[in-house]
Design brief:
globular; seven-stranded antiparallel β-sheet; about 450 residues; 20 strands; five-stranded mixed β-barrel; single chain; alpha+beta; PmbA/TldD fold
């Protein structure tokens, strides 16, 4: 593993980005922005107590986007390189300038307004040097211990699809021709295991994982293995259920997938293309009072946190839905101009090309009731633990997905069910969220607690 980057080395990367922008301007560009990203990743996979694969790799690259022409009539071109030498950067800039000359004029393309630029100061806890200090042997041991805990939990856990430990440390640098330069360092690590339970010839699999930006944030491998085993075991002897309309509870893992569909619907790109059922609905009551959805890239230590977005706009907290009222879309500068709005600091991209729109920490605010209390209030219904394919249609709002889970009778989880489809329309689903659980946990940039939806159609036998 390479040595940690010193402040002088970090300054060098910032200077490379700033120099690339200056070269673009000298070559005739009216605007430019440069991103540099570097990182080291590690991954080990074990299966049935043996190492199956191991990967350790580093990457480093730069990308530039140039604009030619006056504001309101600009053309854009992009290029990237893994060669950060002066010659490599020069070739990258030249290629982007050549491409910009042959692209179409777009009246909405451009950089953010200067007043929209900035960055958060202070420690956002994005990097933990303890992750860089982890030895290969320790990481392998974590995966082996997680799988062992699952396999040893119950005699019916007879197989494993594997366990894995992954880690990453990296740095991101951004500069543009409006005078913005910034950088930040990140780290992350994760552990997961997928045990297989077998009984009477039937087999069921499930998984559990833990992920954090800091080493101390990980759950123990024994806990990960135990929970994964419990989840696999409770799926044994699944039944089919009759087609019917019942209340549906999404556990946090599946609620997060549903929230991902909501993100697509409030994405500014979907809005200006009229490809969302929420287009033109700002200020409208589109959900129940229990639902508040927030995008907040300022919360220290979380996966969606950054000091600035991928256009140099400062990260912020945006209330998207407040007590059921649609308050804001999520925007980069391009979609903001298309909609005559202001960026929400959600620009996202790799190292080159036009910025897309991505979440900060996009989540549903926790409610007051525990999952157990929510389940206890349902006389007959479905508790969804897995969604299989499908999802929401952002344009129409129609929702359909294969599912598996546990059937609720008299307020208790009674038996597993599988080979079913759940369906509804997101317009009605948002209005019929009767309860929001207290169990909000961030295992990624998108997070949701338990959700109770008053009624959905279950298609079974």
């Amino acid at each position: 593993m390479q040595d940690r980057m010193s402040p002088a080395q970090e300054s060098t990367l910032e200077q490379i980005a700033a120099d690339a922008v200056e070269q673009a301007l000298a070559g005739g560009a009216s605007g430019a922005e440069c991103t540099i990203s570097e990182g080291e990743e590690f991954s080990v996979g074990v299966r049935m107590r043996e190492i199956e694969n191991l990967k350790e790799a580093g990457s480093r690259g730069a990308g530039i986007r140039v604009l030619i022409g006056e504001p309101g009539a600009q053309r854009g071109g992009s290029s990237y390189t893994s060669d950060l030498s002066p010659e490599g950067i020069q070739k990258m800039v030249k290629a982007a300038l050549e491409l910009a000359k042959i692209t179409s004029v777009d009246p909405f393309t451009g950089l953010p307004e200067p007043a929209e630029l900035g960055k958060l100061e202070g420690d956002l806890r994005l990097y933990d040097e303890a992750i860089e200090d982890m030895t290969t042997e320790w990481k392998i041991d974590q995966a082996l211990r997680a799988e062992k805990a699952a396999l040893d939990f119950d005699p019916r856990i007879q197989l494993s699809e594997g366990a894995s430990f992954d880690s990453h440390v990296g740095r991101r640098v951004f500069a543009n021709s409006l005078g913005f330069t910034g950088s930040y360092q990140t780290s992350s690590c994760s552990l997961s295991v997928v045990p297989v339970a077998r009984q009477d010839g039937a087999m069921e699999r499930d998984y559990w994982h833990t992920a954090a930006r800091s080493a101390a944030g990980l759950e123990s491998p024994e806990s990960v293995g135990r929970i994964a085993a419990e989840r696999a075991l409770r799926r044994l002897n699944a039944r089919k259920v009759a087609t019917q309309k019942v209340p549906v509870i999404f556990e946090p893992r599946t609620a997060r997938q549903f929230l991902g569909d909501i993100f697509d619907a409030v994405n500014g790109s979907s809005i200006y293309r009229h490809a969302s059922f929420l287009a033109g609905k700002l200020g409208d009551k589109i959900a129940c009072d229990a639902l508040t959805v927030v995008d907040d890239a300022t919360i220290p230590g979380l996966f969606g946190t950054t000091p600035f977005d991928d256009e140099g706009a400062p990260s912020r907290r945006t209330v998207v839905i407040e007590r059921g009222v649609l308050k804001s879309y999520l925007l980069n500068s391009y979609s903001a101009r298309k909609l005559n709005l202001k960026t929400t600091g959600n620009a996202s991209r790799g190292i080159t090309g036009n910025a897309g729109i991505g979440p900060g920490n996009f989540f549903i605010e926790a409610g007051a009731l525990s999952p157990e209390q929510i389940i206890a209030g349902v006389p007959n219904g479905l508790y969804v633990t897995e969604l299989i394919g499908g999802g929401g249609n952002t344009v129409t709002g129609d929702y359909s997905s294969g599912a598996a889970g546990l059937w609720i009778e008299n307020g208790k989880l009674t038996y597993p069910v599988s080979e079913i489809t759940i369906a509804g329309n997101m317009r009605q689903m948002l209005q019929q969220i009767d309860q929001v659980g207290s169990d909000l946990e961030f295992r990624g940039a998108v997070a949701a607690p338990t959700l109770l939806i008053r009624e959905m159609t279950i298609s079974g036998q």
